Amino acid sequence: MKKKLFVLLMMICVTIMYPQVNKDKYDAINTYLSLIVKDTTKTIVVVKEKMSSNGALKLFSGGKLNGIPFSRVNGIQERLGGILEPLYDETDFQKMRKKYQDDTNEGKYELAKNANWSAKDFKLKNIYLEAFDTIMYKKGKELFDYKYHAQLIILSEPMYYKDKKHLVIAIAIGDTSPLGYFDDHVVVMKKINNRWQVIKRGEKYWVE
Fold first, then answer.
1. Half-sphere exposure for 178 (CA within 13 Å, toward CB)
2. CA distances to 90, 137, 154, 178, 184 from 181, in Å
3. Average pLDDT of 124-148?
4. Which of 9, 45, 61, 156 has a CB 3.0–4.6 Å from the CB of 56, allowing a cystine?
C-alpha cells in the first residue's frame, strides 16, 4: 500500500513539474525572440518542426556529435565555430550530448521527425507556423501570401547545460525572399536576476 502511494505521489509531482519546466524553457525562447524580431507588426513564420537536438548539439560543439574530445594545438581546441572555451567544457558537453542526442527522431534537414511547435508556445502575436517543405515550395514558386516579406525562424527545443545553470537554444533565421538563406547559430542563456539573458552566441561551423 505504501509503495503504491509513493508511486502515485511521484506521478503527481512529475505531472505538476513538467509544465513548469517547459514554461521556464519557453520563457527563454520568448525572451530571445523579443531580441531578434525587430518589427513585431510583421508576420513571423516559425517552422513547425523543431530543429533536431542533434542539429543543436552540432551547432553548439562546432560540428561534433560523438564522445571524442577535440584535438588541441598548444592547449587550444581546433575549432572554427560553436561555443568556444571557457564556456564550452568537454565534460559538460558530453553530459548534454548523452541526455539530448536522439538519432531516431532526426529527420531530413536536421529537423525533428516527431517534435512540433504550437502557437501557444510563443508570446508574439504574429507567429505563423508552417511545415518546412511547404515553406520551401512557396519560396521556390514565390507563392507567399503574407502582407510583407516575412521573417523565417527555425528553433530547437532548449537544452539544459552545466547542471541546468544554462540553456542552449539553436536557431536559424531567414526570410521569404526566394534568394534568402538561413543564418544558423546557437545561443547560451543564463538566468540573471530571475530573467534569462544571452551570455554567448556561437556561429555556425563551416565544413570545407
1. 7
2. 31, 14, 12, 9, 9
3. 77
4. 156
